[in-house]
Amino acid sequence: MIDIYSSAEKYSPSEIVAKAKALTEKYTALIHPLNVLTFLYILNDEAYEGRLLQMGEHLWSSRSTIFSDPMLVKYFGAIRPVTQITKGISVTEILNQQQFGFIWAEVLQVHEKFNEALTVLHDLDATQTVAIALADLQLSLKDYDSALETTNEITNEDDATVILLSLRGIAFREKSLLDASLECYHQALSQKKRSKEVLHRARFERSFTYQKMGKTELAKKDLELILVDDPTNREVIEQISALR
After folding, report:
1. Which residue has the higher pLDDT, 10 or 74?
2. DSSP H/E element including 92
3. What predicted TM-score, i.e. pTM, was given to this entire model?
4. pLDDT of 153-174, one tens digit each?
5. Checking DSSP bridges between strand 89-92 and strand 82-86, what pairing results, if any?
6. Given CA atoms 101, 107, 109, 112 in this order, what sign does their dihedral have?
């Protein structure tokens, strides 16, 4: 770990794999932390796609043992991988069992193993971030009733609840309950002190509800208000062009 994180040299995933293998053969007590590090370093390397899934399954099934390993607990407190849960919300926590669960669930979704990802999220400690990840995945699966259940009784308290309200608005919209969808976005946008990114997400999603209601000008207004803060947002620009 000192070599990897303190050295000025940037190691490739294959070099990390080789270093971890050599160290594991020499120091078997390091197997758990080295396996977790290896997993992190091959996340975005297509050459290790098959191995990534195998390692992830092993690490997750053995998570209680692995993440209570004394070496891992002692040294991994400084490792804080960033994991995007949905647009506008990311988690940056120490690399513990919960954080690894978010990473593993994202990997499973990338590989279209959606039911397995749902199981992982249900196994995590219940938090607002887990609720966001669940609702986002439920929407991807078009399980709108479950998304509504996950986002039930949400009030605008912080950035996370703004996102939950926005996801709830999507679920209502896809069920053609458009007034209910608009009410979610009204609540999501009621507090201007939230971060611009989550407010933009709410406006962007509300524009689709307005479109479905045939209110094109209101949809364009929401999109143009995003451009005031983010004038180069290609997704928004393309959506405005599509409305013309």
Report:
1. 74
2. strand 89-92
3. 0.87
4. 999 999 999 999 999 999 999 9
5. antiparallel
6. negative
Residue 3's pLDDT is what?
53
Rg of the chain taking only CA atoms, in angstroms: 21
Q: How confident is the model at residue 78 (pLDDT cuts 50, 70, 90)?
A: confident
Q: Report yes or no on 42 lying in a domain.
A: yes
Instruction: Specify burial of residue 156 (Cβ count, 10 A radius: 0-12, 13-18, 19+).
Output: middle
Residue 184: inside a domain: no
Q: What span, in angstroms and rounded, lies between the C-alpha atoms of 88 and 84?
A: 8
- Start-end of H helices in the chain: 2-6, 13-26, 31-41, 49-61, 63-66, 70-75, 97-110, 114-123, 128-140, 144-150, 159-174, 178-188, 196-212, 216-229, 234-243
Full domain range(s) for residue 72: 1-78
Q: Taking 60 as the threshold, does the pLDDT of residue 2 lie above it?
A: no
The tokens describing 129, both together, are 């971030």
In a domain, 110, yes or no: no
115 domain-assigned: no
Q: At 25, which amino acid appears?
A: E
Distance CA 236, CA 52 (A): 34
Domain count, the chain: 1
- What 8-state DSSP symbol labels residue 222? H
Helix (H, G, I), strand (E, B) or coil at 48: helix
**Inter-axis angle of helices 216-229 and 234-243, nearest 10:** 160
- pLDDT tens digits, 182-221: 999 999 999 999 999 999 999 999 999 999 999 999 999 9
